[in-house]
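Q&A log
Question type: sequence-to-structure
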Amino acid sequence: MTSTVPVTGFAHVRLTVRDLARSRAFYDALFGWEVAYEVPDGADDATREQLGFLFGGLIYAWPGGLFGLRPVAPESDGFDEDRVGLDHLALQVSSRAELDAAAEALDALGAPHEQVKDLGTGWILEFRDPDGIALELFAPRG
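Response status: OK
Response body:
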């Protein structure tokens, strides 16, 4: 079958969060990604307008593309994978050892997580970010 739209990969994903500082601290500590876009402190009105697509958030650069945090959700809101929208976001790592290291990093952050699970074709580590967004790390076997 020929694809109508020949997609070659992901360009970016952006998560809506309640508290940028809290979410940023979590993602910085866990992944340490470089920030690609954010409104600089003391930015003038023209710069703020040019970066309005950030909605007061930021966008990280990571090997898979771009990963953004958009802080517009009310504090009373919460993630629910059983509603229409995102079920979970899975990112790939290279090895089972990297999953074990990620579990240790989550422990150091005080972030609850599941045990590493063997799927046969690889392993997964399931956890949630500060807004309860379901995340997963996957390491392929072999």
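Response note: The longest strand covers residues 122-128.
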